[in-house]
Amino acid sequence: MAQNRSGGTGGSRSSIDSKLERMADALEEGEALLEILHDDEVFERELEEIFAKSWVYIGHESEIPEEGDYRQRSIGKDPFIFVRDENGEVQVLWDSCRHRGTKLCRAEKGNTTHFRCPYHGWTYRNTGELVGVPQKGNGFPDLDMEEKGLHGAPNVESYNGLVFASLDPDAPDLETYLGPSAWYLDLYFKLADMEVIGDPHRWEIDTDWKTPSENFYGDNYHVPMGHKSAIDVGIGSATAKGEKESELYAISDVGGHAFSIYQIPGEDFFWGHPPEVTETFHPERLTDEQYQIARQSGVSLGTIFPNLSFIYLGGSDDPEKDTVGTFCLRQWQPIEPGKMEAWNWIMAPKDAPQEYKDRVYEVGVGTFSLSGNFEVDDIGIWDGIPEAADSVFAEQVNATTVFSMGRGEDTLAEVDDSWPGPGTVYREGGMTDENQLEFYRKWHQTISEAH
Amino acid sequence: MWDIDARSVRESCEKFLYTEAQLLDDRDLLEWHETIITDDIEYRIPIRTTKERSAETEFSDESFHMIEDWGSLKVRVERMENDFAWSEDPPSRNRRFVSNVRVTDENPENAEVSIRSNLLIHRLRASDTDPDLLSAERRDTLRRVDGSWQLTERTVLLDHTVIGTPSLSIIL
């Protein structure tokens, strides 16, 4: 990949402040600045102002069910240990020995009561507490062990099993951060107890993390073109294949996050789950309005800012086999300007029959994964964006990306005032870019706030 | 006993793997699906994670990059032939290097043989000069069907935990 020269000396590229000003102007027009999708300074500031300030997804509690279970995770590019300590509490500990900074966690996952540094042997309980310093009496008689425990993320909270952390000591609580989005997340994580199956798919993609985050805010416009090959072979959802009469709703204005939800009027569809699975659900945990939306739901997707997305798909990996409800949770991790790592966890209702969960997993792999019949075509398209974003010419022509669909006279998408949930909700949700604009507005606001 | 046109079972298996590699390298996917695999094939690429040396295995028994049968492989192959399969249009250029073939079990009674081999895939797109490399061991079971080998079980054990190629829109 070409080196980005924007951070170099002697170049003629404009400063990040100029880019953010031009981004503000573009947003007024329903557009975004292309340059921000491959820029050294923008990337550095995203790490500092977005990833180190927002509530960032760490993992699901079902990934560390037993005391001592741990997983390596990251916030932006910073390494953390996601661990269930000996008291059963979830900890998010910065993976760096207080002595010389060495990473303590050398495996991606495992189970341990203690983390021992391989360098000099400083040893920490899985609560983060420092409990062992070799030769302490002879070498560090005055060392305050209590003061030298592992640094933990200042804020860690769980929402129905989803664990988030914020590195900002002044962050609002998670409930405030999620805001009205929780009304929608309840449909996926409260109606049923969800669990992660196995280990996440992880792979590197030459595109900026913002591109898929924004896409999952609600780029439903790309489906007929981008995913035609998968729809043609017959493995799409009933709604995508046109077998069910449905309406697509685009939901924004819910705390800076966004969702897209297909509704199949009057049907108990539940994202494609059969009755033997839906009977394990807990309708009493939802309001009547929420339950009504859940029951009529076909494909649903969304993103919690900055980089946690999901798609709930009623589909199959083979048209000869039954449709199942597959849930893919993904995180778009920043690696460097114009490059990211995708993480994909496939989830199923915990109380569903094992045989069904196996099918949920297989369909997840066959649709949205490194090898997914839908996913592969997204990636094949997205990797062309950073090269253009890094062009000298991009700045010369003030190149923008267009998110004005749904604006102006006689457009198809219109606000549905009768929708029972929070937010601004558009019918014909595939014909508006308001969701994706919400992403870029939230991005611009967050990255600009401290400056 | 095997009725093979080769000096050894190993050599005949090697020939089979080379034929298969040529079909895949040449993107003759429909022919691969029709001639190489049995209709009861089990094909999987388990996810690998970095674990401490004391761990029994680094490979997951419940999560996979691909977990396929004859039908789902047919879907993949047919999709790849579609005019709108953007991930492979223009196609990536893939060369499979198959080596270290060894026979680990012979079971003439059900006409099956277990083999292991090493696989290196050199993958280039567009004007790339740095290839994506995929390195793995394949553990295969071949079955003698009408005087030819067919693949009836494959487990691809990747050396990668994070995959350094943007999509698996190819068969390993």
Concise summary:
With 451 residues, chain A is of the alpha+beta class.
List keywords for this structure.
heterodimer, A: 451 residues, alpha+beta, four-stranded antiparallel β-sheet, 27% helix, globular, disordered N terminus, B: 172 residues, Nuclear Transport Factor 2, Chain: A, six-stranded mixed β-sheet, 3 helices, 44% strand, NTF2-like_dom_sf (chain B), dioxygenase activity (chain B), dioxygenase (chain B), Phenylpropionate dioxygenase (chain B), oxidoreductase (chain B)
Task: Describe this entry's structure for a reader.
The complex is a heterodimer of chains A (451) and B (172). In chain A, 27% of the residues lie in helices and 26% in strands. Chain A is α+β, with helices and mostly antiparallel strands. In chain A, strands 12, 13, 14, 15, 16, 17, 18, 19, 21 and 22 form a 10-stranded antiparallel sheet that branches. In chain A, strands 5-4-3-6 form a 4-stranded antiparallel sheet, with no helix packed on it. In chain A, helix 2 (40-51) crosses helix 15 and helix 6 packs across helix 15 (434-448). Chain B has a single domain (4-158), classed as Nuclear Transport Factor 2, Chain: A (Roll). Chain B has 3 helices and 6 strands. In chain B, strands 2-1-6-5-4-3 form a 6-stranded mixed sheet. In chain B, a hairpin with a 4-residue loop joins strand 3 (93-107) and strand 4 (112-124). The longest helix of chain B has 17 residues, at 9-25. Chain B is globular and about 50 Å long. The model of chain B has no long low-confidence stretch (mean pLDDT 95). Classes of the chains: A alpha+beta (451), B alpha+beta (172). The interface between A and B is large, with 46 and 41 residues.
